[in-house]
Amino acid sequence: MKLKAIGSLGLCAAGMISSSAMAQSSVTMYGLIDTGIGYVSNQGGHSNLSLVQGVKNGDRFGFTGSEDIGGGTHAIFTLEGGFNSLTGAQGATGYMFNRQAFVGVTNDTYGTLTLGRQYTPYFFTVGALSGLGGGSTLTGWAGAHPGDIDGEDTGLRINNSVLYKTPLVKGLQASAMYAFGGVAGDINSDSVYGAALQYGNGPFEGAIGFNKLNNSGKNLVTSPTLGNFATSAINGGYLTAESVRIIGASARYTVGKLMVGVSGSNVVYAPGQYSLFADKAIFNTAAVFTAYRASPALTLGAGYAYTHASESNGVTDSASYKQITFGEIYSLSVRTRVYFLQAYQRASGQTLYAPPTSGVPSAPVIENAVASIGDGQNSTPSSGRNQFTFVAAIQHTF
Prior knowledge:
Porin
């Protein structure tokens, strides 16, 4: 049940606001619980049948609010924390609101300005249109591009950030973000910046965007700005990069009950003074996807993604990852649905790898590429070239 407190506050202080002015304010509590049974064919050499959570969408609990402060302007905030519905534990140790925590102002004429821990413009434009992961969430983590290498699912939430969105004008909206690194004497260190442009007109939607992540330390995992950088068997050898640059685009077209789309991205890990690799590592991803509304209650989705890494740092047989995903979602009511997901990934070639750590990284070595479906298997990749997963779950929003 969604709870909302809405009130009118009259402020009569002389010189501040007239007695006839009324400020409309609201605070909404909301959440989502996503739990089911999952099977993975190979996690470190063994199959696994277990209860799973947060597959299609991450479990969450939050508050969002708005207050009319006059002149068509509203003060806004969001505080949102993730949790594990199987154990009740916090989604991330050390964070009460690990998903989002920001405050700002919005105006229909001048746009929206927010400050805090936020998603990137790239995520809520390119990611939202990029198919089965990201904002469309037809297949959740199973449909994210391998390892969420391009941040189009939820692999990037940025601390200490300032985000601006223009008003929506004839279907067009731009957005830009800058995050302060907080390093004395060096404004560039640990900073993040990015921008995106999105267009929607009738059945067509498209977006293009980029992120630039600067890392002054020796480990992207412990960067103070990158709140939860996605690490996996795909990028594990490059976590000592001095910077990561991501460029991506996505588009989709809807005709009646059918949606079809494409997306692509280019990701560059650049070495620096503290890096344990010498050459730039480049990952290119291309994807196609579709969804069909079979009935008012039933939606079917399918997608294919191909990620290819560059030959560098001694790797002469570069890694490739081919992934196919299917999803079936059946709505029992407005807030409750059951769903089934299936995904298969095949890896080939070699890659540079070192186990992700919050301590001092070890020197990466050349290994055979292993399968790691979407971003839900980032910490439990296959021991070999193949991985298959199946999930049956129920989800409720409130």
